[in-house]
Design goal:
By secondary structure, this protein is an alpha+beta fold. It folds into 2 domains: about 55-95, no CATH class; about 170-585, Beta Barrel (Porin). It has 12 helices and 17 strands. A hairpin with a 4-residue loop joins strand 15 (about 540-550) and strand 16 (about 555-565). Helix 1 (about 5-20) packs across helix 4 (about 100-120) and helix 1 packs across helix 5 (about 125-140). It starts with a helix and ends with a strand. Residues about 1-45 have low confidence and may be disordered. GO terms for molecular function: porin activity. InterPro entries: Carb-sel_porin_OprB (IPR007049), Cell_Envelope_Struct_Comp (IPR051465), OprB_sf (IPR038673), Por_som-like (IPR047684), SLH_dom (IPR001119). One of its GO terms (cellular component) is membrane.
Length: about 575
């Protein structure tokens, strides 16, 4: 055979292959294909191919009016190197992967070689060869360009394969820069201290000195928080999350303002040293049940629907700790970056509208000493029924039960959201010192109702109301008897305005009452006007406003202002303001 004939047939193979590529679907690894080509039809779940079709009419989605009909007819009926899908479709508009390119080209090369070997002149005619030679000349530059692109793609793929961290693990992260501070007049003091001042048994100077000082610590700060996540999947449906975390964001709590009501949502202090902030494994059991096993850093609010979809996120939502969601989701007193929180959570889909969620988290599960461990120490258990009758409305009914042992100052009944009395209704416990604080062993029953309603694409209204009954589990006379109870209430309403100003932006307003002790059995049997009661005399209100500006897909800037009226539920305290600018980098 002459060189011209061989070259022409070589070009024939390429041209036929190019026309046949989209017709042949190979049983290649779909995961690898999706990594190589970013635009893949994810709806195609069938990877098997149909046998060779003998007529283009066997392809049900190919019509004579299609622009490539004649080319397909020729490839099917003259060259026989076209295959369809099992459902007799061709899917001509489907994106082409390099695996399919190779399979189609190989099929047509084999067919042409068969034709050459059998010298079947009536199938490959001289007119065909002349046409192919003309095509070779006309499309020489295009073929060269395509060859160059394929070579470059092969080189890039080889580099990625040789340098990839893992075939099962992906990496993502976020960094928060924050600048701001608190401002106002004096630090807040609780109602019991104020009763002593008004009763003349103490002075302002003495009470402020005992609580840490009179003036706010109002210097401006610049801080950061870093989270690096390794997300691994072994089946495509499961998820192993390993989080490294570092933080140096000071707590705007009692030491700074006299109250926890002013805390930021991302505060924490590891002195910017990295630790394992969260380690969990999430996997499905069947089609309706999803299981989360938290080894460390477990949080109910991450595992379940918390009904504040746009403002609950730390890097993108509310700037304050208390404005993210109901305090019931902190019943376990655990969280990412604090080395506490081990247990199991489940979400079970009862129907398309109803989901049941339940979980158990122990605070110090890794410690085998008495009063700790998985079942003998502080823990939280939560059950929730979520009802979503349509895509705009969601309702949640939640119950939780907690036990706080009192050791290591771990009593935090209200999630460190509200006043001091709401978090430790029965005060300090036996043996408590400034260097080794201890609380009264306390159990608590929580009840909360949450809702979220998307009024329209630009406005989402959410909120919650919660009641907690705390119960003293030990006696510490003269003020605490086992079985003493305290009633605690909280509520909030949130207004979220997505895409405010431009797509990706978010405006938010949150107004509510931090957890407040309305009734408490604490105290001596005979009370005086100045007796300690650990019962709030007034009502604090929290008002927060924020605006997140989305610079691009990876960077956002959020200025926010938090105002606490009557801090520590004491109207004698000055209003305290927290102003912050949060910049978030996500990658």
């Amino acid at each position: 055979m002459s060189d011209t004939l061989r070259n022409s047939l070589g070009i024939a193979s390429i041209v036929i292959g190019l026309n046949a590529i989209a017709a042949t679907t190979v049983s290649a690894n779909p995961t690898i294909q999706s990594n190589v080509i970013s635009e893949t039809n994810s709806a195609d779940s069938e990877n098997e191919i149909q046998g060779q079709v003998t007529s283009v009419s066997q392809l049900t989605d190919v019509q004579p009016t299609d622009w490539a009909f004649q080319a397909l007819q020729s490839l099917v009926e003259r060259y026989g190197c076209i295959a369809g899908y099992p459902n007799s479709t061709y899917r001509g508009n489907r994106a082409l992967t390099r695996y399919e390119f190779a399979a189609g080209l190989n099929a047509c090369l084999n067919r042409v070689n068969e034709l050459i070997a059998s010298s079947t002149a009536d199938l490959v005619t001289k007119e065909d060869l002349a046409t192919l030679q003309k095509l070779q000349t006309d499309f020489a530059e295009t073929l060269t360009e395509v060859r160059g692109r394929v070579d470059a793609l092969e080189n890039r793929t080889a580099i990625l394969e040789s340098q990839q961290f893992s075939t099962t693990t992906k990496f993502n992260g976020e960094v928060i820069f924050s600048v701001g501070g608190v401002f106002g007049e004096d630090r807040a003091i609780d109602s019991d201290r104020w009763r002593r001042i008004e009763g003349g048994v103490s002075t302002r100077a003495a009470e402020y000195a005992a609580s840490g000082g009179r003036r706010l610590q109002d210097n401006t700060i610049f801080s950061d928080r870093i989270r690096l996540n390794l997300v691994t999947s072994f089946t495509g449906k499961d998820q192993l999350l390993t989080r490294l975390e570092a933080n140096n964001t000071v707590f705007f709590n009692n030491a700074v303002t006299g109250t926890n009501m002013t805390r930021l949502s991302w505060d924490g202090d590891t002195n910017n040293e990295f630790l394992i902030g969260k380690l969990l494994y999430r996997f499905p059991v069947g089609e309706k049940l999803n299981v989360i096993v938290d080894a460390i850093g477990g949080e109910f609010y991450d595992n379940f629907n918390n009904f504040n979809p746009l403002l609950a996120s730390i890097p993108l939502g509310s700037i304050s700790r208390a404005s993210r969601f109901s305090p019931i989701y902190r019943a376990s007193n655990s969280g990412s970056g604090v080395n506490f929180g081990t247990g199991v959570s489940v979400n079970y889909k009862l129907s398309d509208q109803i989901t049941f969620s339940g979980g158990y988290l122990a605070r110090r599960a890794n410690d085998p000493t008495e009063g700790r461990g998985l079942f003998d120490g502080s823990y939280g258990a939560l059950a929730q029924l979520a009802f979503q009758p349509n895509k705009n409305l969601a309702l949640g009914f939640t119950y939780a039960h907690s036990y706080f042992s009192g050791s290591n100052n771990d009593v935090a009944v209200s999630g460190l959201y509200g006043g001091a009395f709401a978090d430790q209704p029965f005060g300090a416990g036996p043996g408590s010192t400034a260097t080794n604080p201890r609380g009264i062993a306390t159990s608590a029953n929580y009840y909360s109702f949450q809702t979220s309603y998307r009024v329209n694409s630009k406005f989402v209204l959410s909120g919650w109301v919660g009641y907690t009954q705390a119960i003293a589990e030990t006696t510490f006379l003269p003020n605490v008897n086992r079985g003493d109870k305290a009633d605690i209430w909280n509520w909030a309403v949130t207004f979220a305005f997505p895409d405010l100003g431009k797509k990706g932006n978010l405006g938010g307003i949150i107004f509510g009452q931090p957890p407040k002790v309305t009734d408490n059995d604490f105290g001596e049997n005979v009370r005086t006007a100045t007796s300690a009661r650990r019962e709030d005399s007034d009502t604090s209100y929290r008002l927060e406003a924020l605006y997140r500006y989305q610079v691009n897909d990876n960077i956002s800037i959020t200025p926010g202002l938090l105002v606490i009226f009557n801090p520590e539920h004491n109207s004698n305290n000055d209003t305290i303001y927290t102003g912050i600018i949060r910049t978030t980098f996500r990658f």
